[in-house]
Amino acid sequence: MTPTSWEADFELDRRNSLRLPCRALWHAQVPDAAAVSNALACAKRLGMGVWVLGEGSNVVLPEVLEGLVLGLSDRRIDVLQDDGGRLRLRAGAGVHWDSLVRWCAQRGLWGVENLALIPGSVGAAPVQNIGAYGQELAATCRRVEAVDRVTGKVVQLEAGACGFGYRDSRFRREMQAWVVTAVDLELHRHGCAQVAYPGVAEILAEVRGVTEAGQASPLDMVESITALRRRKLPDPEVLPNAGSFFKNPVVTRARFESLQEQHCDVPGMVVDSGVKLSAAWLIERCGWRGLRRGSVGVAETHALVLVHHGGGVSTDLLKLARDIEASVRERFGVTLEQEPVELQSMGRL
Ligand SMILES: Cc1cc2nc3c(=O)[nH]c(=O)nc-3n(C[C@H](O)[C@H](O)[C@H](O)COP(=O)(O)OP(=O)(O)OC[C@H]3O[C@@H](n4cnc5c(N)ncnc54)[C@H](O)[C@@H]3O)c2cc1C
Question: What is the distance between the alpha carbons of residues 128 and 84, in angstroms, rounded to a whole number?
Answer without folding.
Answer: 31
